[in-house]
Amino acid sequence: MANSADLTVDGKTYSFPTLEGTENEKAFDISNLRDQTGYVTLDRGYKNTGATKSAITFLDGEKGILQYRGYSIEDLAAKASFLGVAYLLIYGELPTQTQYDKFESDIRHHTMVNEDMRKIFDGFPVDAHPMGVLSSLVSAMSAFYPDVNDEDNTDLHIIRLLAKLPTIATWSYKRSKGHPMNYPQNKLDYIQNFLNMMFALPVEDYTVDPVVVEALNVLLILHADHEQNCSTSTVRLVGSSQANIYSSISAGVSALWGPLHGGANQEVIEMLENIKADGGDVSKYVEMAKNAKSTGFRLYGFGHRVYKNFDPRAKIIKKAADDVLSKLGVNDPILDIAKGLEEAALNDDYFVSRKLYPNVDFYSGIIYRALGIPTNMFTVMFAIGRLPGWIAQWKEMRENKEPIGRPRQIYTGPTHREFVPVEKR
Ligand code: ACO
């Protein structure tokens, strides 16, 4: 039968429909598998499982293609603004000038954070990791907006999240430095405002460097969405229980923090620093990574679940790292170590045969460092970039009225046992 797949199990054959996405991705629809056959699937790490249909982001890991709503990442990085891309992801189309002006102005006028929320910062230790603070404060936002479950106000919650995340992020940094927190300023645009809150001090003038603004614009666009990755799937899963948007995004921040996901950008720089301190011999580290099972060492910034040729974002970022460092006149030996490591790994059969290439996190930290952003803020930068994607995916999931996410399992524990009283154990 056309457009169906047959499965024979326990002597019976069952038919399942197949489906195809707009970019010809093929899938078996097994929604009724358990009902029909009594079997479930086992797919640890969801390597083959499509959790949803989505019209937001397309990527082809074999060809190295990434598109938001049909627009290629290369075009968007070269021609769009971060907020324009945010609008595209969330609302499906590039904004007209009028739509953009309203969106930008709404965000500009919601950047202030409730003063009571500001007091929460005082309860954290000064050396708290800013990702922990960010996740907590985003979750706390739900307490400050009791209308959070009113679906008519979703657009306003979206504006609040986009507007306040940079304020919260920079305040966590300022507190860790023991510096006064800077308030947002309506005369500044999104990226200028972030930089001003991050770097301005009351004792001297701070001027936003347009080279830095442009570099951040590109980096944020490259991070803005990546279909059903770990943090986005987390946002969708949490939201599928009808948890509010702030709680769902807060869960996404926590998922992003892990070193196998967004936390890799911090790990990369720490790894490159270690290599430098150890004399700069990249081959030693390539060998350690090849023996990951005994050394426990991975090359952070290398490998990707879906990209098996190259990560198109890494290509853009590598070039941007060269451009930004030269425009800013920064000579960072870490960049040479990164390039040496990449070359050594790409010529090594271990990495070639496993299709391990630099990912988006491999060079992004080098740019952040050149822009003056401290290492423990790298993953926070990723979160600011990824926010529009999380929002778009949360909104799509709710609008499509997706059911609650609830995987099955294969139970491997003891079968039924009689209870043993404590004196007989
Ligand atoms: N260094 C050394 N070996 C690696 C690396 C690495 N960075 N990544 C994968 N491998 C090896 C594994 O040991 C495994 O080898 P084996 O077949 O001999 O057992 C093989 O390559 C396949 O690796 P998996 O872990 O099965 O691949 P998976 O798709 O599950 O993992 C991941 C992808 C988590 C990104 C992995 O490549 C990794 O840990 N990379 C380093 C962390 C990192 O940079 N994460 C950021 C990813 S991008 C992002 O989230 C924004």
Strand content: 5-15%
CATH architecture of the largest domain: Orthogonal Bundle
Helix fraction bin: 40-55%
Average pLDDT: 95
Oligomer: single chain
Can you list the ligands bound to this structure? acetyl coenzyme *A
Order of helices and strands: EEEHEEEHHHHHHHHHHHHHHHHHH
Termini distance?
Answer: 59 Å
Helix count, per DSSP? Answer: 19
Judging from the principal axes of the Cα atoms, what is the shape?
Answer: globular
Structure notes:
By secondary structure, this protein is mainly alpha-helical. It folds into 3 domains: 4-50, Rubrerythrin, domain 2 (Single Sheet), CATH 2.20.28; 73-229, Citrate Synthase, domain 1, CATH 1.10.580.10; 264-371, Cytochrome P450-Terp, domain 2 (Cytochrome p450-Terp, domain 2), CATH 1.10.230.10. Helix content is 53%, strand content 7%. The strands form 2 sheets. Strands 1-2-3 form a 3-stranded antiparallel sheet. A hairpin with a 5-residue loop joins strand 2 (12-20) and strand 3 (26-28). Helix 3 (82-91) runs parallel beside helix 19 (378-399), helix 9 packs antiparallel against helix 18 and helix 10 (230-240) packs across helix 19 (378-399). The longest helix has 24 residues, at 154-177. Acetyl coenzyme *A binds at residues 45, 260-262, 264, 289, 292, 298-305, 354, 356, 359-361. Acetyl coenzyme *A is lined by residues 45, 260-262, 264, 289, 292, 298-305, 354, 356, 359-361.
